[in-house]
Design the sequence.
C-alpha cells in the first residue's frame, strides 16, 4: 500500500498492511533544542517537516488556510504586527490576528496572554470582514498555490490535509472567550454573521484547493475544551455551530471527493464527540489523557469515529517498562478495531528525552 491508500483504507475501517505512522502530533521547540544536545542532528529544526522526516513518519502534506499561525482565523492579508510596549522580559503587541497580546521576548513555547480582541460588535466585524474574503486572488497566488504545488510533488506517497480554522476557533480568535460568552446572550446576530462568513471562507477555499491538489482530509482547529469539559454548552453548540458545520460539510461532500473531516480540541471532549458527529465530523484528535480521555472507552461508545492520538505523553518521561505497559494496554485492541492512528495526545514536551522518544517509537512500531 502507498501512503494515501493506507490512510483511506484505515479511515474506512478496512484492513491495512500497517497503521499510518505519525506517532507524535508535534514537538515543542524546546524539545528539539534539548534533543540537539542528546544527539539529534542540527538539521532537524522544526516540528512540521524535518522532525517527522527524521523519525520516519508517513509523509503528511499541509494546505493551511491559516497562512500565518494558529492564532488567526484565516485573514488575507493578516494584520501587521506592531509593538505597543516593550519591557525586559515581554512585549505587548498587536499580532497578526489583530489581537493585543503579551508574549515573552524569549520566544518560549506558551500561549500568549490576550489583552484585547479585534471584534466587539457587528460594526467591528464588518470592518475586517474583507480579510476573510476567500475570493481575494492573492490568497492563492501568493500562498496556497505554492502549498498545493508542494503537496503534489510527493504523489501518492503522502496524504494531504487542508488545515482550516474551526468555527469556535474563529469566534474565540475574533471576540475572545469572554466576548464570545457575552455575545451568545446579548448579540447572537453577530455570531450568526461570523458563522456565515466562516462557511463561505471555507467552502470556497477548500473547493479551490481541491481543484489544485488532492485533499485527503480536512482538519478544523478548535481547541474548545478544558480539563473539566467544553467551553460551550450543547445547546449553544447546536444553535451557533451545528447548522454551519452541516452546511459546510454537506457542500464539500456534494462537490468534491473529500470524505474525512476532523475536529481538533484539547481537554475533555466527551460531550463534544456526539455533537460534532451529528454535523458530519468523523475524525477527532488528540484525546488528552490528563483531561480524562480514554480512547478505549471512546471506541466503545463511538465505533465509527476515526481516532488519532490518545497515548499519554507524560508516560514518555518514565522508563522503558512504563512506556511498554502503557502501549500494550491500549494499542493492540485499538488497532484490532480499526480506524485508529496511534499518536501521543499532544506535542512532545521538553521533559521527554530523545532516548525515551526513540524507545517509544521502537516499542510502538513493534506492535504494528
Sequence:
Amino acid at each position: 500500500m502507498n501512503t494515501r491508500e493506507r490512510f483511506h483504507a484505515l479511515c474506512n475501517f478496512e484492513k491495512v498492511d500497517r497503521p499510518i505512522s505519525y506517532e507524535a502530533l508535534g514537538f515543542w521547540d524546546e524539545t528539539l533544542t534539548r534533543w540537539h544536545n542528546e544527539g539529534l542532528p542540527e538539521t532537524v529544526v522544526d516540528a512540521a517537516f524535518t522532525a517527522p522526516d527524521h523519525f520516519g513518519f508517513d509523509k503528511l502534506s499541509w494546505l493551511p488556510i491559516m497562512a500565518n499561525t494558529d492564532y488567526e482565523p484565516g485573514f488575507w492579508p493578516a494584520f501587521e504586527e506592531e509593538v505597543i510596549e516593550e519591557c525586559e522580559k515581554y512585549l505587548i503587541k498587536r499580532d497578526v490576528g489583530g489581537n493585543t497580546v503579551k508574549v515573552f521576548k524569549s520566544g518560549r513555547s506558551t500561549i500568549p496572554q490576550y489583552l484585547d480582541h479585534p471584534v466587539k460588535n457587528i460594526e467591528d466585524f464588518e470592518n475586517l470582514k474583507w480579510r476573510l474574503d476567500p475570493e481575494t486572488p492573492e490568497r492563492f497566488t501568493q500562498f496556497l498555490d505554492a502549498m498545493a504545488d508542494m503537496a503534489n510533488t510527493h504523489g501518492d506517497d503522502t496524504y494531504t490535509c487542508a488545515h482550516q480554522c474551526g468555527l469556535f476557533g474563529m469566534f474565540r480568535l475574533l471576540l475572545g472567550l469572554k466576548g464570545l460568552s457575552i455575545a451568545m446572550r446579548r448579540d447572537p446576530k453577530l455570531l450568526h454573521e461570523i458563522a456565515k462568513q466562516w462557511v463561505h471562507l471555507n467552502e470556497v477555499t477548500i473547493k479551490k484547493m481541491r481543484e489544485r491538489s488532492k485533499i485527503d482530509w480536512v482538519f478544523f482547529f478548535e481547541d474548545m475544551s478544558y480539563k473539566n469539559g467544553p467551553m460551550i454548552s450543547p445547546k449553544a453548540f447546536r444553535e451557533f455551530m451545528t447548522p454551519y458545520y452541516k452546511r459546510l460539510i454537506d457542500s464539500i461532500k456534494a462537490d468534491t471527493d473529500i470524505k474525512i473531516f476532523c475536529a481538533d480540541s484539547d481537554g475533555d471532549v466527551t460531550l463534544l464527540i456526539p455533537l460534532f458527529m451529528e454535523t458530519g465530523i468523523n475524525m477527532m484528535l488528540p484525546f488528552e489523557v490528563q483531561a480524562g480521555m480514554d480512547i478505549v472507552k471512546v471506541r466503545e461508545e463511538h465505533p465509527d469515529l476515526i481516532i488519532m492520538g490518545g497515548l499519554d505523553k507524560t508516560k514518555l518521561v518514565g522508563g522503558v517498562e512504563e512506556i511498554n505497559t502503557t502501549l500494550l494496554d491500549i494499542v493492540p485492541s485499538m488497532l484490532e478495531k480499526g480506524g485508529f492512528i496511534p499518536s501521543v495526545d499532544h506535542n512532545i514536551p521538553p521533559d521527554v528525552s530523545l532516548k525515551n522518544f526513540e524507545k517509544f517509537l521502537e516499542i510502538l512500531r513493534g506492535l504494528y
Q: What stands out?
A: Residues 188-212 form the longest helix (25 residues). The mean pLDDT is 94. The chain has three domains: 23-57+292-368, 60-73+119-286, 80-117. Residues 283 and 306 are 4 Å apart (CA to CA).
